[in-house]
């Protein structure tokens, strides 16, 4: 009889990765980050467990989208009060809070349950090139996405 091997969560040591978002396409970058957060790149992947790694995203202000998405892609948020809908396009949000663009793209690719909320806390996004996580000794991760210049 075959048995599914479930990894011991206490023995899993998560790694820390640094991803440079400069000149990367938003959707392709977000899907790669979501897979690393989920742990799908590891042989110990288990759908209902947190077997993923930590991801630090730097240069979030330099992420790009193709076509007319920079002026047509809309980001909505609601204050919870009547008439409290705020709508902003990609360009304005990137100028104001560039981290939120990557955060929302990755969050939409994670499971919509308590596991997804836990995985989302393992991603740290910074607008510039510096980050305060040097103590974790993160590895540089080069993603095989299509750079923005290769249309």
From TrEMBL:
GO BP term (any one): negative regulation of translation
GO cellular component, one term: cytosolic large ribosomal subunit
Gene3D superfamilies linked to this entry: Ribosomal protein L13
Protein's UniProt keywords contain Membrane: no
Keywords assigned: Ribonucleoprotein, Ribosomal protein
HAMAP family hit by this protein: Ribosomal_uL13
Family affiliation: Belongs to the universal ribosomal protein uL13 family.
Function: This protein is one of the early assembly proteins of the 50S ribosomal subunit, although it is not seen to bind rRNA by itself. It is important during the early stages of 50S assembly.
Name of the protein described by the UniProt record: Large ribosomal subunit protein uL13
Organism whose genome encodes this protein: Aphanothece sacrum FPU1
């Amino acid at each position: 009889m075959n048995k599914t091997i479930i990894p011991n969560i206490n023995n899993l040591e998560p790694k820390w990765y640094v991803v440079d978002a400069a000149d990367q396409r938003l959707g392709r970058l977000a899907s790669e980050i979501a897979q690393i957060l989920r742990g799908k790149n590891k042989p110990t992947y288990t759908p209902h467990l947190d077997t993923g790694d930590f991801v630090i995203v730097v240069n979030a202000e330099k992420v790009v989208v193709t076509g007319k998405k920079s002026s047509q892609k809309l980001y909505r948020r609601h204050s919870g009060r009547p008439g409290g809908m705020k709508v902003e396009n990609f360009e304005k949000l990137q100028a104001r809070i560039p981290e939120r663009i990557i955060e929302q793209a990755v969050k939409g690719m994670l499971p919509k349950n308590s596991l997804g909320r836990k995985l989302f806390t393992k991603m740290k996004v910074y607008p510039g090139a510096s980050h305060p996580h040097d103590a974790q000794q993160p590895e540089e991760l080069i993603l095989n996405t299509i750079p923005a210049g290769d249309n």
